[in-house]
From TrEMBL:
Pfam families linked: OmpA
InterPro entries the UniProt entry points to: Bact_OuterMem_StrucFunc (IPR050330), OmpA-like (IPR006665), OmpA-like_sf (IPR036737)
Organism in which the protein naturally occurs: Dyadobacter koreensis
UniProt KW Disulfide bond keyword: no
Protein name (database record): OmpA-OmpF porin, OOP family
SUPFAM superfamilies per record: OmpA-like
CDD domains xrefs: OmpA_C-like (cd07185)
Entry's transmembrane regions: 7-24
A GO CC term attached to the entry: membrane
Region: Disordered, residue numbers: 271-293
Domain OmpA-like: 184-300
Length: 300
């Protein structure tokens, strides 16, 4: 009896195995199908988009770095500043503190982009947008030079780019008395600072630097009765040496009167004139003569 049961179990298992084979291999036809594998697209021709960190540097005087950068739409002139807002504001502060600098803003563009602006190319248009932002911070238009540069190496992702703006710095060539005045930097009331005058004017050119000098000198002299403010006038080499000596003394006295009017005691100010005897530049050029027409101030 037990032998009959064993035979029935063997037949049942065989029938189940045959049914399973028939269903999977004959009906589904899966027995000869290749194993499926997951694939990874390794197409090396697809460009990898990455954000190049922004760097703005002027030698050792100024160095800014940001993990972000400017952003532009393809054929667009308006910059996305969200990744560099703090850095561009720091650049504005640096420019305001260094009016003797000229900043060239270069905008990049590609030959596949369309320039729908009124500028000669899209690069200049992009640079102009950055300049507009900086002048909106109170910076004078004269601080900036705009440039456009074709750069077909720019990669878009898919219709936007990262970067596209470069900055370079140069020293402004002083061509006016105002330029010369702005070049003067306050370091200490014990270091000389030069005052300059517009042509045919007795009013010296006021700057944040010489105003700072005057404020600190006034405070120091009020606490130190043994110290004086020395004003020394200088001229160029035009006219006679005798006349220039008189003129330099007159210019120093004019500055003294201005300082006294601002509340500085007259007895704490000493005036002197050197005429053409101590030039700071060559008198062979108009620019040199402008540099020599000055009043030097220092606390002693």
């Amino acid at each position: 009896m037990s032998n009959n049961k064993t035979l029935w179990w063997i037949l049942l298992i065989g029938w189940m195995g045959g049914s399973t084979y028939w269903h999977v291999c004959k009906i589904k036809q899966l027995c000869d199908a290749p194993l499926s594998t997951s694939t990874v697209d390794t197409d090396t021709n697809t460009p990898t988009i990455s954000i190049t960190p922004l760097t703005i540097a002027d030698g050792t005087e100024f160095n800014l770095q940001s993990p972000g950068n400017f952003g532009f739409a393809k054929s667009g002139a308006d910059a996305n500043l969200s990744g560099v807002q703090a850095e561009i504001d720091s650049l504005a502060s640096f420019a305001a503190a260094n009016p003797g600098k000229i900043i060239t803003i270069t905008g990049l563009y590609t030959s596949e982009e369309t320039n729908s602006t009124t500028f000669p190319n899209l690069g200049v248009a992009r640079a102009a947008g950055i300049k507009k932002y900086l002048t909106g911070k109170g910076l004078p238009d004269s601080l900036f030079v705009l440039n456009g540069k074709l750069s077909d190496g720019i990669v878009f992702d898919p219709d936007s780019m990262s970067g596209g703006i470069d900055f370079t710095f140069a020293k402004r060539i002083a061509v006016t008395e105002t330029d010369l005045a702005n070049e003067q930097k306050y370091e200490s009331i014990f270091k000389p600072l030069d005052l300059y005058f517009p042509a045919a004017s007795a009013e010296y050119i006021k700057t944040a630097e010489n105003e700072k000098f005057l404020k600190e000198a006034k405070k120091f002299l009020s606490d130190n009765n043994d110290k004086k403010l020395l004003l020394t006038g200088h001229t160029d080499s035009d006219d006679s040496a005798e006349w220039n000596l008189k003129l330099s003394k007159k210019r120093a006295n004019i500055v003294k009167a201005k300082f006294v009017a601002l509340g500085m005691p007259a007895d704490r100010i000493i005036t002197n004139g050197k005429g053409e005897a101590e030039p700071k530049a060559s008198n062979d050029s108009p620019a040199g003569k402008r540099a020599n027409r000055r009043v030097t101030i220092i606390v002693q």
